[in-house]
Amino acid sequence: MVYVYYDPGTKQVLGFFDTPNLADQPGWSSRGLSLALVPDGMGLDSLDFKVDAVINSDGYDIVTDYSVSVNPDTE
Fold it and tell me: What does the alpha-carbon distance between residue 29 and residue 47 come to, in Å, rounded to a whole number?
């Protein structure tokens, strides 16, 4: 399972987790970042992406669209 934390203002992905255990990361959520699941095979696989759209399903935000964006925090 892949999930990301992203800035809801800029939509930039700032945290990327590839783990079978979905768990809130208090350090990330306390910074005001949003959590979203990435569907299998979607291709969002690093911090160099922006989350363009999400839907809420079963209480979770799920990424439906994203775009490539060089993450300024990793430069």
Answer: 17
